Amino acid sequence: MRTGGENAATLRQHGRLIAHRVVFKTDDPEAPRLITRGDALPSQDSAISPAELLGKVSGILRAGEWIQPPRRLSFGARTVAMLVSRSGRAAGILARLRASRRRPCEHEALCQS
Predict the structure, then answer these.
(1) CB within 8 Å of 59: residues ≥ 6 apart
(2) Does residue 97 sit within a domain?
(3) Is 22 part of a structural domain of the chain?
(4) For residue 55, what are the domain limits?
């Protein structure tokens, strides 16, 4: 498995299924460990064994649309993720922006311009 945030992996954490990027793999052949991190989180997760890894994310189904996750986040996406992870206000603004983009337009004449 590649490291450096190029692969998203699925794992179970606190009873929930999550998808985080693998950012580091230890060199110990007797007890290999993987370090993962969520895109919008300020710090890395605790190390896990490869046996705890449930799978690799190959795509995301969001609002009926299949999305290929980027192999690596762009500088802009990393910057937004960092801001969101450190600021509740920034997270709220981003959530409202995303929700407004999904909402159908109420005024058809304004939406067509």
Answers:
(1) 66, 67, 68, 69
(2) yes
(3) yes
(4) 7-103
Residue 108 lies in a domain: no
Structure tokens at 107: 């005024």
Exposure pattern of 48-62 as b/e (b: 16+ CB <10 Å)? beeeebeeeeeeeee
State the Rg of the chain over Cα.
17
85 domain residue, yes or no: yes
pLDDT tens track for 1-23: 445 555 777 878 778 888 888 88
| Model confidence pTM above 0.85 | no
pLDDT digits (tens, 9 = 90+) for 45-97: 888 888 888 888 888 787 888 888 777 778 888 788 777 777 778 777 877 88
Q: Which of 97, 19, 26 is nearest to 61 (CA)?
A: 19
Q: Where are the beta strands (DSSP E) in 1-113?
A: 7-13, 16-25, 34-37, 53-56, 60-62, 65-67
